[in-house]
Amino acid sequence: MEYQSGAVSPVGSIQEGWDIIKNDYWMYVLMVLVLGVILIVASLILGTINNAITSVIAGALGAATSNSGDVTRASAAILPQVIAQFIGIFTNIIVATLSGVLFCGIYKSLSRVANGGRADFADLFSGFEYIQPCFIYAVIMSVVQFVIAIVILLGFAAVGFSALGLGVAGILKDGQFDPAVLSGLLMVILAYAAISIIIGLVIAALTVFTYPLIAERGLSGVQALILSIKSGLANIGGLILLLILGGLMLFAGALPCLLGLPFVAPIYIASLFAAYRRVFGAFGGQQNYNPPPPPNFGNRPGY
């Protein structure tokens, strides 16, 4: 499937997204509101189960290592978090699959509206026909996120062990905390935070077209992901800027006690769909096609 390089205009995509949904804006606000409620409830239920398991493991390890050294106790404190990340793979897969099918429903609706149709609330649940590709995509991304989270966690653990290795004497200077050591630890933490944000932006830019490709083009989870990565690399600059602008829009919407999110999120989602159409072109819609007239052979015998 062909795609354009350097086709994403951040501001232009936001404007085009608004043009797509403006006649059905309130319907998309309702869709986003219901989508958010569903995902929050599902996340809370699964998160509670995950936290309960992690707490039991942490309590057992804490009791078993209560008389051990600092390094052993630190390892016992980190291990439950690693286990929680492992359990989180399965909970993330469930939530991501549910999120995927709902977003596919919205993108399917946006495709019809962009081609001259109208939105319907039932569109939100029309994406369940794509549950298989969404599940495959969720499995892949959950594993990727797990690996990244473990690497970051181990990095923080290394910093913690270094601090333990310094000991109190290494951190204190003349009976007070050494500003140089504390500044170094703070810089490491900020560096990890910056790296996490950059990695998150790049991954989001490379995978942003996966759901539209599944919903509109009917691709499998693997096919949509691969094509999204290829097209994302060809438009990485514009996509990252669009994600940053969209993130600022969502942040502004979240300021009034999260009340503005349902009103801003439809524009953000539509802008991503508009960027997708800039890269892959329009698809579907009403085709004004009239077949050619049959050939006229006259009234000659045999015809």
Compose a concise summary of this entry.
With 303 residues, this protein is mainly alpha-helical. Helices cover 75% and strands 1% of the residues.
User: Which range best describes the helical content: under 10%, 10-25%, 25-40%, 40-55%, 55-70% or over 70%?
Assistant: over 70%
Radius of gyration computed on alpha carbons:
26 Å
> In the residues, how many domains can be counted?
1
Low-confidence stretches: 166-170, 286-292
Q: What is the topology, as strand order, of the major beta sheet?
A: 1-2
Instruction: Tally the helices.
Output: 9
| Average pLDDT figure | 82
Q: Sheet with the most strands?
A: 2 strands, antiparallel
Shape: globular
Annotation, overall tally of beta strands: 2
Distance between the termini: 44 Å
List keywords for this structure.
two-stranded antiparallel ribbon; globular; 303 residues
Give an account of the 3D structure.
The protein has a two-stranded antiparallel ribbon with strand order 1-2. Residues 166-170 and 286-292 have low confidence and may be disordered. The protein is 75% helix and 1% strand. It contains 9 helices and 2 strands; from the N terminus they run ααααββααααα. It is globular. The chain has one domain (10-280).
Topology:
Blueprint: H1 10-21, H2 25-64, H3 70-114, H4 131-171, E1 172-173, E2 176-177, H5 179-207, H6 210-217, H7 221-234, H8 236-254, H9 261-280
Antiparallel strand pairs: 1-2
